[in-house]
């Protein structure tokens, strides 16, 4: 009788652990979604970018995709969309030129539900020279798209 209980407990444990694993994301669907993002139009768009998700870490770093402006430009918001995992986070780092010094400010917005995309992230920088964005998921799965909006 004890062997049966041990086998049943082992089977339940294996089923439970496999249920905790992230579901596999359809890479073909991700690529198709990325192609669709190229045709998305947002009023006031200064530029757009998209990429595959990075694995989330505790620190905001210099990874991601950047848009650089020739002259200081007013940025008012980021429109962020994602596909793949249930939730993603986004790191936005804006750089501005203050006299001879370039200042950078980073902000992480966490737990954006991909099914509710697009998300508007209010991010005001009156004289941005560069915007760096990276979409993050717990396991590095999925993809993201962002449109930088402002005044040219």
How much of the residues is beta strand, in percent? over 45%
Instruction: Give the helix proportion (percent range).
Output: 10-25%
Q: Give the overall pLDDT as a whole number.
A: 85
CA-CA gap between termini = 76 Å
Count the helices. How many?
2
- Taking all Cα atoms into account, the compactness measure Rg is 20 Å
What characteristic shape results from the CA principal axes? globular
Number of strands: 7
Task: Summarize the helix and strand pattern as letters.
Answer: HHEEEEEEE
Polypeptide structure, described:
The longest helix is centred in the first third of the chain and has 19 residues, at 2-20. This protein has helices spanning 2-20, 27-37; strands spanning 45-52, 54-55, 65-83, 87-98, 101-113, 119-137, 143-151. Strands 1, 2, 3, 4, 5, 6 and 7 form a 7-stranded mixed sheet that branches. It is built from 2 helices and 7 strands, in the order H-H-E-E-E-E-E-E-E. It is an alpha+beta fold.
Question: What is the strand and helix layout of this fold?
Answer:
Layout: H1 2-20, H2 27-37, E1 45-52, E2 54-55, E3 65-83, E4 87-98, E5 101-113, E6 119-137, E7 143-151
Parallel strand pairs: 2-6
Antiparallel strand pairs: 1-7, 3-6, 3-7, 4-5, 4-6
Question: Can you tag this structure with a few keywords?
Answer:
152 residues; 20% helix; 54% strand
Quick structural gist:
This protein is α+β, with helices and mostly antiparallel strands and 152 residues long. It is 20% helix and 54% strand. It has helices spanning 2-20, 27-37, and strands at residues 45-52, 54-55, 65-83, 87-98, 101-113, 119-137, 143-151.
């Amino acid at each position: 009788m004890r062997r049966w209980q041990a086998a049943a407990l082992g089977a339940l444990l294996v089923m439970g652990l496999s249920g905790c694993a992230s579901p596999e994301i359809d890479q073909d669907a991700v690529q198709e979604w990325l192609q669709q993002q190229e045709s998305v139009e947002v009023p006031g768009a200064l530029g757009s970018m998209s990429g595959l998700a990075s694995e989330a870490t505790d620190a905001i770093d210099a990874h991601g995709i950047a848009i650089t402006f020739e002259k200081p430009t007013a940025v008012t918001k980021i429109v962020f969309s994602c596909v793949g995992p249930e939730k993603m986070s986004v790191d936005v780092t804006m750089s501005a030129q203050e006299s001879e010094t370039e200042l950078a400010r980073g902000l992480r917005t966490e737990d954006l539900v991909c099914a509710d995309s697009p998300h508007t992230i209010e991010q005001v920088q009156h004289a941005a020279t560069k915007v760096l964005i990276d979409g993050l998921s717990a396991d590095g799965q999925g993809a993201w798209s962002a449109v930088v909006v402002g005044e040219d």
